[in-house]
Amino acid sequence: xxxxxxxxxxxxxxxxxxxxxxAASGRTFSSYSMGWFRQAPGKxxxxxxxxxxxxxxxHYTDSVKGRFTISRDNAKNTVYLQMNxxxxxxxxxxxxxxxxxxxIVVLATEYDYWGQGTxxxxxx
Length: 124
Hints:
- The chain has about 120 residues and is an all-beta fold.
- About 0% of the residues lie in helices and about 50% in strands.
- The chain has no helices and eleven strands.
- It has strands spanning about 5, 10-15, 20-25, 35-40, 45-50, 60, 70-75, 80-85, 90-100, 115, 120-124.
- The strands form two sheets. Strands 2, 4, 5, 6, 9, 10 and 11 form a seven-stranded mixed β-sheet that branches.
- Strand 4 and strand 5 (about 45-50) form a beta hairpin.
């Protein structure tokens, strides 16, 4: 069992930055590939980015490439999402998720554990 707790969300102006964190419980964190998803009001949950168990492989959806960076610290059981040059269309609840698949998992249905989400609001 893995429990995930996100933090770091908030309100930011367009062009600003935020860093999300996702702290995981359990001693097997390093065996999970991790991902970030987001869900805007009235829209389906969408894939944002994922990282492999070792952190050496990453994948991003096109709309965030060059602006967002995913990383992980297995010693701290934490995955991060650095978000720069934020746009109003990035406004959503952001969720982290853990998968026993991999090394990179894109489909939400292939993730085994989810956090409760953290709100990110970008004002124009």
